[in-house]
Amino acid sequence: METFFNNLTRFKALSERGQAMLLPLFTRLEYKKGETLIRCGKPCQSLYLIEQGYCRAFNIQDGLEVNINFYFEYETMTHKNSYVFNTPADFAVVACEPMIVHRVDKPELLEATRLCPELEEAGKKNLELIAAKQERQMQLFRILTAKGRYEFLEQHDPELLQRVSISQLASYLGVKRETLSRIRNKRMRSATL
């Protein structure tokens, strides 16, 4: 856990006391592909730091799964609104491959931040990163065409294009699978010219 923790840059600046208070709060969990981390309709009062594997956030719209986001190694995953406001989650999160995560629950984390104020700053930075990722994804859909969204992911999230299935990626980009296949084929052809 300590090696994993040291790879999370937002926690590197913590003092030894801060690290000593924070590390014991985490519970190491393993999930199999398809297992649920966050259930839609239930409050999410935990943060999940991903050590290995990735997961997807999705909800159901008109009977179809719509992928909202993907979370990979060294990212923190939660349902931000549910976590902050203690409301039911409006999406689910499931493992897309075997995962190892480290979960910390909000009550214990709040008590630790009360006793060690530097933890509050690290927590704020962590929530800011989550919010920034969500904001970037919203901008992606407000501004860019489907082709532009794909090109953006090629430049900024190539891992997502390599690891996520074409069906899930199409859902995430808001296009049909056939449309995404055409975009990918055109991009590959233009890259070889």
From TrEMBL:
Pfam family, one: cNMP_binding
SUPFAM superfamilies (alphabetical): cAMP-binding domain-like (SSF51206)
Domain of life: Bacteria
Species the sequence originates in: Niastella soli
Designated name of the protein: Crp/Fnr family transcriptional regulator
Residues covered by the Cyclic nucleotide-binding domain: 10-106
Xref: InterPro entries: cNMP-bd_dom, cNMP-bd_dom_sf, RmlC-like_jellyroll
